UniProtKB/TrEMBL annotation:
The lineage of its organism: Eukaryota, Viridiplantae, Streptophyta, Embryophyta, Tracheophyta. Its cofactor is FAD. One of its GO terms (molecular function) is flavin adenine dinucleotide binding. Keywords: Disulfide bond, FAD, Flavoprotein, Signal. It comes from the Eukaryota. It holds the Pfam family GMC_oxred_N. This is Protein HOTHEAD. Residues 291-305 form the Glucose-methanol-choline oxidoreductase N-terminal domain. Belongs to the GMC oxidoreductase family. InterPro entries: FAD/NAD-bd_sf, GMC_Oxidoreductase-Related, GMC_OxRdtase, GMC_OxRdtase_N, GMC_OxRtase_C.
Length: 591
């Protein structure tokens, strides 16, 4: 009897110990994930909550693939009335110091590890770029600038202006701030006004010609506030967010006239396979919010795309659509380096000059000055502002990359004093395409943006570089920099040297502005397209010739809205969520 009692006590102690371990793990996950509805993908069970059928199999009113800039506000909105499952391939941003703080902006981009919030890719044009791999999407790795689209853009895409003007403030109240203007940004403002980019419109979210100070998702302490924080507005009882959940394909029922989305197949962080399904309601939907790289890629992996492309990789065709992956565009950017004899405060984009010649002038300063930045492994990313430099495809050899890394580690600390005046093309006319490399969703597809393929884009770059040089040579900017007015050739020579990339330098690249534009083109991550309205989706963003499948992200854009698109993509998530609820429930919608 005594032995039995002793064994029973031991068994109870073991249960308590296991329960404690489970509680501690749960506490750690809650601390890391912030919200109780965020869980690891491996916790998914096909027999958990939200089942609307008589079986034990779980089903959802909406499955959102991609918890990014559009996906988070969309999920928060839809969950007010319906069950929502969000599947995000990355982790959470809350405990990642490289994501959370402005001072580490460039280090987050330079992190090329598999667990990084930033996944680098190289376009066939030779420009290194990045895509987000984290809950909150691009709002976790961008420069933070927040502005609205101009009214003409809203008209062109056919959105309800009244609902748009209700949706922007919903975002702004939660995560957007007025910046404390850095001296570099103040000097840019004065320089822009000196050269006639006027009037001065002060602090405003609106897209208006002249010089303005925009909003930022960095607060006064330099802490970043991402789209993931918009999930605080969700109904926690109706929302499940799975992180480290990589969706491999959309599942279709092909027995009807049009293929009907039924759910998705995904893998968790341990590589185990899962399936998640929609309810039987005809209005339930799978919504793709994977971004301009991820959404066309996933569509094709699911069997929706150009027939020849699918056959090439032996993908079973669900629906032929020749336009999936077409019309890819990226706003080309070039920078002019301005050296300083003293350290400069770190600043990202706060001031912008909106010109009438189709270019925007912005600035950043002081990045790359920390020992952590210069000495850490950046791969082939230039360290000056965390910006992504160029490398011709034929020269992307392993030896060249290793030589670049070695050379960059030896760059002296003084080389990074100063900042950049940035010139970006608005609404580029040059477009390209996206193609699958293989059937592994973890691998980047191949993308061509065809920078400066249209002569008008090249001419606008030339005009923009001239304008940037005038700003630097203006009285008020040179007074701030405390230097003599540099000549155009001197500015360009410094910029070519500071660009720290592997582009072969042409003998005339500081005398020919056209050549300078081509040789020093970089990205500011405003790429878009691949699933255009009228070609891949209709005006309600439903995928053409399918049922229960929708796309809500920048892949549907034929132009990047405003000077910086994040504000409009955030608004789009809220806007489309409200629109879906009101169409489905009318006045009964709780938004």
């Amino acid at each position: 009897m005594a032995a039995f009692v002793g064994a029973l006590k031991l068994f109870i102690c073991l249960l308590l110990w296991l329960n404690t371990l489970s509680s501690l793990q749960g506490a750690r996950d809650f601390s890391e994930f912030r919200y109780p509805f965020i869980k690891r993908a491996s916790s998914f069970s096909s027999s958990s909550s939200f089942s609307s059928s008589n079986t034990d199999e779980v089903s959802y009113d909406y499955i959102i693939v991609g918890g990014g800039t559009a996906g988070c506000p969309l999920a928060a909105t839809l969950s007010r009335n319906f069950s929502v499952l969000v599947l995000e391939r990355g982790g959470v941003p809350f405990s990642n110091v490289n994501v959370s703080f402005l001072r580490n902006f460039h280090i987050a981009l330079a992190d090329t590890s598999p667990a990084s919030a930033s996944q680098p890719f190289v376009s066939t044009d030779g420009v290194i770029n990045a895509r987000a791999r984290v809950l909150g999407g691009g709002t976790c790795i961008n420069a933070g600038f927040y502005t609205r689209a101009n009214s003409d853009f809203i008209k062109r895409v056919g959105w309800d202006a009244r609902l748009v003007n209700e949706s922007y403030p919903w975002v702004e109240r939660q995560i957007v701030h007025q910046p404390k203007l850095a001296r570099w940004q103040d000097a840019l403002k004065d320089g822009l006004l000196d050269v006639g980019i006027s009037p001065y419109n002060g602090f405003t979210y609106d897209h208006v010609y002249g010089t303005k100070v925009g909003g930022t998702i960095f607060d006064r302490f330099g802490r970043r506030h991402t789209a993931a924080e918009l999930l605080a507005s969700a109904n926690p009882k109706m929302l499940t967010v799975l992180v480290y959940a990589t969706v491999q394909k959309v599942l279709f029922d092909k027995t009807g006239k049009r293929p009907k989305a039924m759910g998705v197949k995904f893998k968790d962080e341990n590589g185990n396979q899962h399936q998640a399904f929609l309810t039987n309601d005809r209005r339930s939907e799978v919504i793709l919010s994977c971004g301009a790289m991820g959404t066309p890629q996933l569509l094709m992996l699911s069997g929706v795309g150009p027939k020849a492309e699918l056959e090439r990789l032996n993908i079973s065709m669900v629906l032929h659509n020749e336009f999936v992956g077409k019309g890819m565009a990226d706003n080309p950017m070039n920078s002019v380096f301005v050296p300083m004899t003293r350290p400069v405060e770190q600043s990202l984009i706060q001031t912008v000059g909106i010109t009438k010649m189709g270019v925007y002038i912005e600035a950043s300063s002081g990045f790359g000055q920390s020992q952590d930045s210069i000495r850490c492994h950046h791969g082939i990313l230039s360290a000056e502002i965390g910006q992504l430099s160029t490398l011709p495809p034929k020269q992307r050899t392993k030896e060249a990359i290793e030589a670049f890394i070695k050379g960059k580690k030896d760059i002296p600390h003084e080389a990074f004093k100063g900042g950049f005046i940035l010139e970006k093309i608005a609404m580029p006319l040059s477009t390209g395409h996206l193609n699958l490399v293989n059937t592994n969703v973890d691998d980047n597809p191949s993308v061509t943006f065809n920078y400066f393929g249209h002569p008008r884009d090249l001419q606008r770059c030339v005009n923009g570089i001239r304008m940037a040089a005038k700003v630097i040579q203006s009285d008020r900017f040179t007074n701030f920099a405390k230097c003599d007015k540099p000549t155009m050739e001197k500015l360009l020579n410094m910029s070519v040297r500071a660009n720290v990339n592997l582009v072969p330098k042409h003998t005339n690249d500081t005398k020919s502005l056209e050549q300078f534009c081509k040789d020093t083109v970089i990205t500011i991550w405003h790429y878009h397209g691949g699933c255009h309205v009228g070609k891949v989706v209709n005006h309600d963003h439903r995928v053409l010739e399918t049922r229960r499948l929708r796309i809500i992200d920048g892949s549907t854009f034929s132009e990047s809205p405003g000077t910086n698109p994040q504000g409009t993509v955030l608004m789009m998530g809220r806007y489309m969520g409200v629109k879906i609820l009101r169409r489905r429930l009318g006045k009964a919608a709780h938004v």
